[in-house]
Amino acid sequence: MDMFRGHILCCGGTGCTSSGCDAIIKEMEVQLAANGLEKEFKIVKTGCFGLCALGPVMIIYPEGAFYSRVTTEDVKEIVEEHLLKGRVVKRLLYAETVEEDTIKSLNEVDFYKKQLRVALRNCGVINPEDIEEYIGVDGYQALGKVLTEMSREEVIDIIKKSGLRGRGGGGFPTGMKWEFTYKAQGDQKYVACNADEGDPGAFMDRSILEGDPHSVIEAMAIAGYAVGANQGYIYIRAEYPIAVKRLGIAIAQAREYGLLGKNIFDSGFDFDLEIRLGAGAFVCGEETALITSIEGKRGEPRPRPPFPAVKGLWGKPTLLNNVETYANITQIILNGAEWFQSIGTEKSKGTKVFALGGKINNTGLVEIPMGTTLREIVEDIGGGIPNGKKFKAAQTGGPSGGCIPAHLMDTPIDYDSLIQIGSMMGSGGLIVMDEDNCMVDIAKFFLEFTVDESCGKCTPCRVGTKRLYELLEKITSGNGTMEDLDKMEELCYSIKSTALCGLGQTAPNPVLSTLRYFRDEYEAHVRDKVCPAGVCKKLVKYTIVADKCKGCSACARKCPVGAISGEIKSPYTIDTEKCVKCGVCMDTCKFGAIERK
Amino acid sequence: MEKNTIPFNGTKEQEEKLKSVIAEHKGQEGAVIPVLHKAQEIYGYLPIEVQEMISEGLDVPLAEIYGIVTFYTQFSINPKGKYQIGICLGTACYVKGSGDILEKVKEILGIDVGECTPDGLFSIDATRCIGACGLAPVMTINDDVYGRLVVDDVADIIKKYQQ
Fold first, then answer.
1. Contact between chains at A15 and B92 (C-beta distance less than 8 A)
2. Of A17 and B68, which is predicted with more confidence?
3. Is the same domain home to A41 and A163?
């Protein structure tokens, strides 16, 4: 084996790929060769580090220097200064890691300090395209232990005892699901993995599959052994090309090493995996719809029971878990149920990964112990709201979840407390909103999504969400009445109680939670015909503040409809009848004299 | 969905490719969706002519194939432009103003979402989260990703592809 003096870990996740990490890696290879260092430093393309906002990122060991927002032009300097002369390039370091003369470890910066990485343990640490690296961090040890030392009942027992609950959103106890499938009668059983991460703004599962695909493969094999299945399916979004590619490589490598296929670890246990691509249908995240989609049909859900554990893929008992759930399994097997139980709250054990996005400084991927408060996530880990704006709400659970207002920021995050405050854990999207976001508009945004994604099978969802959307449309265009608010609430509850599957049953949540916490905003739209955040175009009014206007006429010249008039050097005015609310005047004015309300 | 005005002109080569894909998957359980994915790779879209070939090849009723194609947003009955513009309307991008970006693109190209410009150069898709939330708001043109956009960037970016 070659020995290297140092390692250069470059993030190759989707976030960093989008910001151009491939070009940087290529340049790094060129520069290493130019300086004759290619045998001394090894470039490792890893999965997501989590700090996507700083991408492209790289970390150089042994120093642990964390370079962020690196450009191809910077690479030469890094090689010549840092690698050749041993002088760390300070200007490119992530500012938080710089301390007078030393570099702080990444684990000590605010973003990582409060995190605990279990599911993401290998993301950003190993090369996901090399099975040897996974084995090097105890990979496939859990599978070996299970196949050679444990009975199927013991495996199920340890998962049950750990208290692990489904990370896809529902929070159903994983061990019980395993037990049901184990007990179900059938000559053929299947395990399946839900990687159809459809929540807009969520990318936890993708990052795990991109950064550590073997952890999911290993866990699925363990699950297969426990429930008595020898075939598995991973249903993954076609929109995730990098994850699909790495998963394919990982499966091929596992087969080559005999960790998938016949007679694994000489135990007589056979197990193999197949990837199935989704085709862009949010409803396929629902378990029965996902199963129908793997079967090659329109992904429509069906009533439960029978549950997939009894009647799933092709009518056979099927165990279906989410990516993040699987990513926890090997750690529970290796470290024991007690270890897992020691993390989290009474009813929600372990950690949860969140995709932090929206109006927040540190967008990226975070993994926290259950029970961490929203405030800690937003303020400490997320680094607060950019541009000195005020926090207004955090949205969890995607289109099925709700908005958490500022006064509930100290709620500990776990399955039960989130449901109590009208939201839900969901798969882990966490979108932060500031005072510039209109909550009615956000509710409308999610309803538009559900209307679009409703499969059309049941009436409450197909028609109900459309009517709900129309009511929101009416309100945001200034035609709503107070009765509409009550009507909306009533409609929400009837959709919730009558829709066929999880998509419809949870679709009204964004409306209900915003009505509950931001009713005043709805009322402002209805009663005062005003959008307080200035988002809803039809309600927005542009005016010129006379005190600030210098009378330069720049706005009048730019206005496409000639709605602005006045005399040079005295304040101008906008004719609101003519104004089309395009906002050009506001962008043009150098004196901040134009107000939008 | 009768927006398709460009006549189908598949080549013999494409047909051969499709036939070998069908042969490869025939008899496999749940084969329709994988075959449709491959067919779309070959032709760029899934016009009714292609659906007919798949229906015959896999021995699945055309109505069922059509039902599947129209159910999933990844599958397109309309041809795509040489440059496929995708504007992410995931939540993270939306709260950072991707809606305005989309409006601007529509305005510049004079077409709606799902349509293709008459010269076949551009088509617009409003995509779900592409997972580059750290760069929000995000627009993609084929494999190029443009992040942290403001409305004023749009015209210049599109101009690059018009030449």
1. no
2. B68
3. no
Each domain of chain B, given as residue ranges in start order, spans: 12-71, 83-162
A115 falls within a domain: no
Domain at B83-162, CATH homologous superfamily: Glutaredoxin (3.40.30.10)
Percent of chain B with pLDDT over 70: 96
Interface of B with A (CB under 8 A): 29-34, 36-37, 64, 67-68, 71-75, 89-96, 127-136, 138, 145, 147
C-alpha–C-alpha distance, residues A89 and A559, integer Å:
48
Phi/psi for A544 (5° steps) reads: -105, 125
Q: How far is B136 from chain A (nearest CA, A)?
A: 8
A179 and A201 share one domain: yes
CA distances in angstroms from A517 to A11, A469, A512, A521, A538, listed in the order given: 39, 19, 9, 9, 23
Cβ–Cβ under 8 Å, residues A25 and A9: no
**Contact check, Cβ <8 Å, A357/B92:** yes
**Average pLDDT of chain A, as a whole number:** 93
Indicate whether A201 and A314 sit together in one domain.
Answer: yes
Closest-CA residue of B relative to A357 is B92
Looking at the predicted structure, is the pLDDT value of residue B6 above 70? no
Residues with Cβ within 8 Å of residue A435, at least 6 apart in sequence: A389, A390, A392, A533
Average pLDDT over residues A352-378: 94
For residue A395, which residues of chain B lie inside 8 Å, CB to CB? Answer: 91
Identify residue A79 by its one-letter amino acid code.
Answer: V
* CB pair distance less than 8 Å for A277 and B33: yes
Q: Does one domain contain both A201 and A257?
A: yes
Q: What is the CATH number of the domain that holds A511?
A: 1.20.1440.230
Smallest CA–CA distance from B133 into chain A, residue: A357
Domain that holds residue A55: 6-106
Does A590 map to a domain?
Answer: yes
Q: pLDDT tens digits, residue range A69-88? A: 999 999 999 999 999 999 99
Instruction: Summarize the confidence of residues A276-297 as an average pLDDT.
Output: 94
Closest residue by Cα to residue A162 from A425, A344, A415? A344
Question: Does A176 reside within a domain?
Answer: yes
Is A364 close to B29, i.e. CB distance below 8 A?
no
Mean pLDDT on A192-206: 89
pLDDT-derived band of residue B1, with 50, 70 and 90 as boundaries? very low
Is residue A355 domain-shared with residue A336, that is, in the same domain? no
A527, A550, A571: which is the final residue of a domain?
Answer: A527
ipTM above 0.95, yes or no: no
Whole-angstrom distance, CA of residue B89 vs CA of residue B51: 29
Question: Do the Cβ atoms of A278 and A241 come closer than 8 Å?
Answer: no
pLDDT digits (tens, 9 = 90+) for B43-94: 989 999 999 999 999 999 999 999 999 999 889 988 888 999 999 988 888 8
Please report the sign of the dihedral spanned by the C-alpha atoms of residue B121, residue B126, residue B130, residue B134.
positive
Would you tell me how many other CB atoms lie within 10 Å of the CB of residue A378?
A: 24
Average pLDDT of the residues in B121-137: 85
Residues A321 and A418 grouped into a single domain: no
Q: Which residues of B touch A299 (CB under 8 A)?
A: 71-72
A536 within domain boundaries:
no
CB-based contact B29 A314, cutoff 8 Å: yes
Could you read off the pLDDT of A201-227 as tens digits, one per residue? 788 999 999 999 999 999 999 999 999
Least CB–CB distance from A200: residue in B31, B33, B91:
B91
A334 and A207, same structural domain? yes
In this prediction, residue B43 carries a pLDDT of: 94
Q: How many domains does chain A contain in total? A: 5
The number of C-beta contacts closer than 8 angstroms across A and B is 132
Residue of B nearest to A587 (CA): B152
Q: Are A54 and A43 in contact (CB under 8 A)?
A: no
Among B129, B149, B152, B153, the strongest candidate for a mutation testing the A interface, having the largest count of A CBs within 10 A, is B129
- Which residue is closest to A441 within chain B, CA to CA? B95
* Residue A566 predicted with pLDDT over 80: yes
Task: Give the span between the Cα atoms of A557 and A584, in whole angstroms.
Answer: 10
